[in-house]
Amino acid sequence: MPPYPPRTPSPSRHRAQWIAFWLAVLAGLVPTVLLGWWGWVWGKVSDPEPPGVTVHHSYGIVGCVRYTDATLDEMRRNPYGTADPGVDAYDGEGYPPELVLTLQTPTPKAVVVTGVKVKVLKRAAVPNSGVIVVERACGGSMMTRPFDVDLSKYPVKVLPRAADDGTTVDFPLKVSESDPEQLGLELDPGDWHVRFTVEVEWVADGERGSKVLDNNGRGFEVTGTGDLPTYMMPERR
């Protein structure tokens, strides 16, 4: 009897074998991936990172007096049309320009704010041209913890001052998600034009943290008034 020809596997059988092989591989990988994902989630829940402090300064420096490089004649002709927004200024009287900081945590856990530091980037003479513009109906901010900041001194100190109700609050301060604090840094440049940054420092779960506020890399600016002419803004009609 003649021998039978050798049997060759059919294409469909090859496909079935490959499918079975890859199913076995996936069956081994899926539990590993799920276990790894669950370990990551459990680590975040059981051992979260220490909370920090979120610092807001939505309005930048706010004041009643500002410096502009426009001329006095330009201000008189078009007081509300000058393109230059100016730099906040202080002549030593009335309300100083103020940088309001709102401190809050992203979690219910309390954090201790240990201090605020001010770093002077540049201290220059007051401009010898331009105008000091005084706004009408201007006053100080409400509901802040006031701190005096003398930018003409070195090093710059952030010193607590009594609020309108007579209370004085100094560091350390405790803040949380439901109990924020609002600090008002009242800025006195003296006879200088000053550019500076602010750093807020805290301690959370025994670890130190900080946040530097630099006005998007430009620094904050405030200036004295020197001997520049003064222009009182008219009432809007």
In short:
By secondary structure, this protein is of the alpha+beta class. It has helices spanning 11-46, 72-77, and strands at residues 54-56, 61-62, 65-68, 87-90, 98-104, 111-125, 131-134, 145-150, 158-160, 173-175, 181-188, 192-204, 207-213, 220-224, 230-232.
Describe the structure.
It is a single chain. The protein has 237 residues and is of the alpha+beta class. The chain is built from 2 helices and 15 strands. Strands 3, 4, 6, 7, 10, 12, 13, 14 and 15 form a 9-stranded mixed β-sheet that branches. Strands 1, 2, 5, 8, 9 and 11 form a 6-stranded mixed β-sheet that branches. A hairpin with a 2-residue loop joins strand 12 and strand 13. The protein is globular and about 85 Å long.
The number of helical runs is 2
Gyration radius, to the nearest Å?
A: 32 Å
Tell me how many strands there are: 15
Low-confidence stretches: 1-9, 40-50
The assigned structural class equals: alpha+beta
What oligomeric state best describes the polypeptide chains here? single chain
Helix proportion: 10-25%
Helix and strand succession?
A: HEEEHEEEEEEEEEEEE
Mean pLDDT: 82
Tell me the strand percentage band: 35-45%
Write down the overall geometry. Answer: globular
- CA distance, first residue to last residue: 118 Å
Largest sheet: 9 strands, mixed
